[in-house]
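User: Please predict the structure of the protein below. I'd like the answer in structure-token form so I can feed it into my own downstream comparison script.

Assistant: Understood. Taking the following sequence of 113 residues as input:
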Amino acid sequence: MMILWNIEAVLADYGCSDIASAATCEQAIALIRTRHFDMAMLDVNLDGETSYAAADALAEDKVPFLFSTGYGARGVDARFSGTPVLQKPYLDGELAAMLVALLPSGAEASAVA
């Protein structure tokens, strides 16, 4: 939970607004289906299951996203090979840089973590 709070604080520090979080893939999909997001960050493991269904929902809605995992790119299913991966542990600046790279230049963002 403390890591999530840190992520939310970093996002807020970089000007993101309307930040939402989900503890399970089901919760993430519900957020994706009911709200608009400019970008998203998905932990590969959400409460013991992969977040791939949420990634599919984001891709369907054309929302740019990245994965976060301690296993790096090799910890992500091959069908998402073109998706950016932020390897844990990471520095706040690395998180911010990767998320900013997902956005069109100069855009403000709402995000799901």
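That's the full token string. The radius of gyration is 13 Å.
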